[in-house]
Protein 1
Amino acid sequence: MQILIRDFITGDRIEGYYLIKALNLKTSSNNKKYLDLMLADKSGEVNAKIWDVDQEIEQSYHLGDIIKVRGDVTLWMDQMQLKVIRTRPLEYGEEVDYDSLIPSAPMKGADMLAFIEAKVSALEDIEIKRLLEHVISVNREKLLYYPAAMRNHHAIRGGLLYHLYRMIESGEALCKIYQLNWDLVLAGILLHDIDKLNEMESNELGIVSGYTTDGQLLGHLVTGVVAVDRWCEELSISHEIRRLIQHMILSHHYEPEYGSPKKPHFAEAELLHHLDMIDARIYDIEKATNDLKPGTFSEPIFSLERRRVYRPILEE
Ligand SMILES: [Fe+2]
Ligand SMILES: [Fe+2]
């Protein structure tokens, strides 16, 4: 029976399907080769070792594969580790419950995209509407599964769309309160991270294997501004709309040390930054507290300035 990684107990022998989220070939101190794996399911990750590998074994494991594993749960330097006894790749036609294996957004990609498209089609500004419809149509396939990050917030299948979905929900409410231009805010939300689609390499399971060269050297703010330039050129969008959206992309990380060469210079850009922060931070807090017992603290969370997050004791 499939046991979730969250429920592993030291000393147990487990058997189940897990996803290879990272793999490295290493050499032990007595000169034997072993595979160092990070196995994952939707509940978490566990380090696993396969000892004494030869070239044939080594070549049969790939990043993003799902494998069947039997192993013993051990403790190594205070960390849970799986000592693999047997593994095999999936056999042709073998049924696997992907939803239990792959950490995914709680909503289906197609539903989130339909929600976003309905918001775009209700816009009043015809230029912004034309631009956003175009961007969605050229990026539709990747949008459906891309995560929003390699490690930080929304590093899950469909994470980018889920990030946009929640920003739209909170952005629409705040826009009404502050009487800001919704068309511009929606454009900022949909385009602020759009070039994450080219910044990271992700497979269809939402697993990121690394940053692209453009991602490393330029980052999604700069390449996003360049992409908007190209789209606006193709669609003959006015200069004012183009530079407003480009400014929103450029300033959404706010601080130069986080990649923004400019701070927000108008209200919609200021709001965009805060919508982004709210969603990223709440996500990280949710993630850190999900598996905590009420009344306890998490480990220090790097993306939250090493804060330890507390799970309040509240009636369900
Ligand atoms: Fe960003
Ligand atoms: Fe973002």
Protein 2
Amino acid sequence: MTALESSTKVQLGGKRGGPDQRTLRQDHWAIQPFAIVTLLSAFVIYSTWAAFQNKYYFVGANVHRDLISPFYSPCVGGSCVPGAKFAFTWHWWTWSPALIILAFPGGFRFTCYYYRRSYYRGFWRSPPSCAVADDHGNYSGETRFPLIFQNSHRYFFYIALIFNVLLTYDAVLSFHQPGLGWGVTVGTIVLSANAALLWLYSLSCHACRHLCGGQVKSFKAHPLRYRFWKFVTPLNAKHMNFAWASLFVVALADVYVRLVASGAITDYKLF
Ligand code: FES
């Protein structure tokens, strides 16, 4: 067989990914979009349910703990339980405090370049995978409403940094055991892991890397930006890992605090 006979014909003007066949791939390419749909759907369903619960989000002095769910922090709503309240409170907000908060980290993840790639593949199937034809006949990219709002990602990044500081503060407070002093519990480890992963997720963000080293013509003239850029670049290469790990652990942190606050489990003290 000659090279010409074994080659694939290209028909310009056809559907993205190939006009005659959906794909030439013979591997199990459909597993990845299926896994993305399953995991992201599970997270959205759980976080929506948890946000509307408006209870069991704080473990306080009555059990010698200071643990707050990341879904409810900072707790600024009028219905926040004593001990969980932030420095200021919006008394007029009587619905679940989580509903104020989740829009910001939710917006950060929704506009994330990695998640965009994932849910465009998984949910919109545009395209479902590399070298697989779109489920749609045309493609307008992110140049029009509503996807043009994906360009707001850098602003969500700045807001996410504020949340990271607040959740780091919560992690530090989780070492405090009211009436007992300071120590480490399983809750301390969960909230600390959550804060650490959120920092890694944010610092590995493409907008962060651009902020550090973007539009610099000469790194020699900007040694500090060069240092930041050198620091975040290897993190950026692992952004996908941090995206999934931080998503899993933030949900785990809410589940853990919820189980302790409801009395289903005891927060085990290590020392
Ligand atoms: S690119 Fe994913 S958080 Fe910015």
